[in-house]
Fold this sequence. Notes:
Layout: H1 21-27, E1 56-61, E2 64-67, E3 85-89, E4 95-100, E5 105-112, E6 118-125, E7 129-130, E8 133-134, E9 138-142, E10 147-150, E11 154-164, E12 169-178, E13 181-188, E14 192-194, E15 205-210, E16 216-220, E17 226-228, E18 237-238, E19 245-249, E20 277-278, E21 285-295, E22 299-304, E23 311-320, E24 324-325, E25 328-331, E26 338-341, E27 345-346, E28 356-360, E29 366-377, E30 382-390, E31 393-396, E32 414-418, E33 421-424, E34 433-439, E35 448-452, E36 459-467, E37 481-487, E38 498-503, E39 510-519, E40 529-534, E41 542-547, E42 549-557, E43 564-567, H2 582-588, E44 595-602, E45 605-613, E46 618-624, E47 629-631, E48 641-647, E49 650-655, E50 671-675, E51 680-683, E52 691-700, E53 708-716, E54 719-720, E55 729-730, E56 734-738, E57 743-744, E58 754-763, E59 772-780, E60 782-783, E61 787-790, E62 794-796, E63 800-801, H3 813-821, E64 827-834, E65 841-851, E66 857-865, E67 871-873, E68 884-891, E69 894-905, E70 908-917, E71 922-923, E72 930-931, E73 936-942, E74 949-954, E75 957-958, E76 961-962, E77 966-970, ...
Amino acid sequence: MRLPFRRRDAACRRLLSPVSIPLLLTLSSFAISPASALTFTPAPASNLDLSQLGRVALAGDFSGISLYQFEEQNEHPFSTNGSESLLARLPNGIFTSVVDTDATIQAMCTFVMNNGTTLGVVIGGNFTSLQGRQSNAVALFDPNTAQVTPLTGISGQVSALLCDQETNSVYVGGTFVGADSTNAIAWVGTEGWTNLPFAGFNGPVTSITKASNGHIIFGGSFTGLGNATAPTTPDGQIINLSTASITSGSSSEKQGFSDPKNIICKTGSTDGPGNTWLLQDSSTGFWQATFNFGFQPTKLRLHNTHFDGRGTKKWRFTALPINGIMNFTYIDPATGQNASCTSECPLSDDTSIAFQDFHFVNVIGMNAFRLDISAFYGSGGGLNGIELFGDDIFAYAINDFNEPACAGLQFASAATKTGPWTVSPSLSSTSEYLTANISSPITISSASIVFSPDIRESGTYSINMYTPGCRQDGTCSTRGQVQITGQMTANPTKNEVIDKMLYQTNDFDKYDQIYIGEVDASSGSFRPQVTMTPLPGQALPSLTFVAQRVGFTLINSTSGLNGLFDYTPGRAVNASDFTNSAVNRLGASFTTGSAVNALATSGDLTFVAGNFTSQAVRNIVAMNVNETNTKSLDGGLNGAVETMLLNGTSLFVGGRFTSTLDNKTENLNNVAVYDISADAWSPLGAGVNGRVLRIVALTINITSSAPEVVVSVNGNFNQLEAFGNSSAVSVNGFGIWVPSQKNWLQNLKLPVESIDGLLSSSILGIPGGESLYAGSLSSSTLGVSGAATLGDTLGNFPVTIQPSPASSKSSGLAKRDDALTNNTSAGVVAGVFDTNNGRNITILGGHFTATATNGSTINNLLFLDGSKNDEVTGIGSEINSNSTFAALAVQGDVLYAGGNVTGTVNGVRVNALVAYNLASKSFNTQPPALTGGSGTLSSIAVRKSTGDVYVGGSFKLAGSLGCPGVCFFSTSSSQWTQAGQNIDGTVSSMMWATETMLLAGGNLTINNTVSSFLVKYDVDKQTWDNYPGSSDLPGPVDVLTAGTSDGSQIWAAGTASNGSVYLMKSNGTSWQSAGETLEAGTDIRGLQIFSLSSAHDSTPTVSSNEILMLTGSIVLPNFGSASAVLFNGTTFRPFVLTTSSGNTAGSLAHIFTEQNNFFNTSSNQLPLVFVVLISLGISLALMLLIVAAGLFVDRLRKRREGYVPAPTSMYDRGNGMQRIPPHELLESLSKGRPGAPHL
């Protein structure tokens, strides 16, 4: 059990928290180097060779897409449980967490000393942990090492920070207790926490700014300087001893006197059995109480016994578990003078004294104590009663910890509850607490608890709700939100009622201020109460709802302020007269109950914004601090201002308003910009349709390589309002305004980033050039919906596809079939590049809406014609808008598109498949409808040699033809033909392994008897048979792809009978598993081999110059989901990450290319005909060389053997020929050829 937070000290002022001393030594030993920067780890290059594929595109259900380039990237959605992170940007623009927290970061500033040394970035919020390390409300972050140093010493919530280099100080504001201050304190240089010359404020501080005159201006909801104080009647809360565990040592053996519990709740009784506890004769002893909650006592009351002349004479009080002997002050009954004692405190034996009160000198936390009796009167010591009191006003969820019933109090603290509550151990918390485990649906009546405190005097109170941490009990994943309500005054119009929402997702114990204001004392007609229930409608399968205690702290106040305070560093504060400051006078002019929410300084002007009115201004005003005059800014705004951001001369303002008070500028709608130099208001577009809570600056590359400052707007809205040519945009409370474009980022038709979530604070440019952000974001390098191009980088198609309202990811064949059958698929599911007959058309199909060039709406199937300036068209209204296209194929001029498709074309009903003529841009005569089963089509495979269109899916009939599972449409005869007669079942995927062999995967039956998950069809024999080794597959095949160019090897993925996902490769005879395990939730929707430009180590399943890509939603161990991963035969590596507008990871359904040359490994390869001709040429050259070499060798041999040429004479030969008579020469021709020689 952790002891309660120490709220008061005996010392009047504390400079440093003791635990801060080691920290100060650490802070003084480091400073951030000007060249320092956060570092990130590049991911290995993919080395895909896309050179032979032409155009490449990715299709799926996403609103943002990124290549995996750094190991810090992921597909995690932004947090919705109240936790945020300290964020930085990767070199590719993606936001990544550098420090995780369990709650919100509300303020940041760079802490630079006046000598130029940067100590780090101070971060403040309502967190209890940073990077898993306990850290309450404020810490220091070192960008050089990414280390966090908690600035211990305050407890509560920090809402505002101001780092002042001139005074080496960090001014801190919020709702907290630290040192001897409430809600405001300073951290000075390396000295640590230092109380300001005033005791803080009696209300929250929400903003701090430094004016041009050097003054520090605090803004908030306070009415005076002040601090926590004890009630007018101190020691009024009774600490419950009746439910403690009581033990003793050396108790008397006399009947009726041995039980140490005798003296609890027996304060009015006389000595005697059952009322008195005695020690053994002539013996020392002890009395000990152990509690299941922590407390801070201020007074001990002891009733001495006088039974038989006995009594306690000397005693000491030891606080446990710290084993500290406590100091007390008391009034000596003999002298009437104040006295003090420590280890030997006296107790009078005067029978006329009913009891003695001893006041604790130091108020500390404990959960047990022991009274040691060291001396006694008469025969032995003993007591007749004991009571313990405190100032802290708590109402506990467990009634055993509230004031005891035996005290007879009229309005004792108590709690009432409904629901399945159980008691949880305190573990590292200050007390045990209640836990209710609630199953969905979560409603306000699922459980409730009402806290009723013992309020004895009316006054200004701060009310805090205490929540035990979730890490200690392992419930962080099921913690959620709670609703707090309550009425604190008998007259409900006197003060606002409590109506607050809180997160219970804190890692460690925390408290949240839920109210500050007037609280009436309990009476017979009214009692203050706080009710806590689960926030209804939370999207959690189960909720862990916890309740511990509510605390009420009386606030002492000087009054005289109203939301503004002007502090001059180094000067004493005159709390009796605040009117010397024009800033204080401005606050005093506001009506009672006003609040200042934001401050900003530009030159001599200080802007004050919030929820206030005066005779001259409303909700926003500017003051020249040197001339002490104000500017009304067109009278202010007609609604409250929650936040401001100053960027140059532009002041961005957000809140709940619609126009300036003088109505000169209308249609501001909750967010606007004030041009300081022009003294004019302007809307941001047409604003948003709900309250704006935060405006934060960030940088984005919009139209050039240089980033520009843009403005994020966060709040309770779901739409960016339409204006000009821009339609309304649905959002999740987050928008980005681009000042250079005068438009929202979500409206820009530019290749820009996708960002969604929440930003609460930022620092643009810390030393080293980095920027830091606070919030919870999901982001992508390219904001695009449904389809993107893939090359060296990602690109977008010139088409506007509306993002899906929610993710459609699924897992397993059953889910895939259900998604198609029930039309729950979303996004682009299939795509084709059509280049036939000189066309240049990109075809996208799925379940989506898009905008045509003429402004009309396209449903589910669109054409992007590159030859007509990227004209975007659809297919008209003949196909029902709730259809889903899952497969596309082009044969000649005809597009065949199938899926869960219904409609009426040319008066004829169509189902599962439609045919559309791309040349005439009209529907052909349609193939007869595919019906039976679920009537859906999942795959199309065109046989190239014949043009026949083979389709697979869940159907039984093609028109009237029995054709279960697989059928083909003859394009020459325009009729359906059954592909074999021995197959039945549902087909999920098909591919041509060879020109005559078709493979089909799914849940199939051959010959009505043999079940199979993968079958092959012999076109020549027109029969189906099991694919070799298909019995080794653990479940139906969902996806197929060729593993080699000749189709002799294939890859298959599917869902095993146990629900797990498998990935296997066949060499044509046997199967081999990929080996690596994919996590639950994986949905493989596509497989494709790619060639590589750089080889990896060869593996048995993947050759060294190739790699396998998986698309879908692939959940990798120790990483999470990725929309595309690469598999090299041994390991999976993320390749593409996506985000969805529904705050989930997106998914990739399909990758499609212009050419299918996936197995070509080099862009310099020649066509086959040239390779053959070159080979023949080389062969002839080699033959000639061989002949020449032979002749040379033969001539050389003859020369060596002495051969010489015979003498010749061309003259003699000529003369000889001339001597032969012609008739002799011709005569020889008539003679027969001589026969073979004979031996």
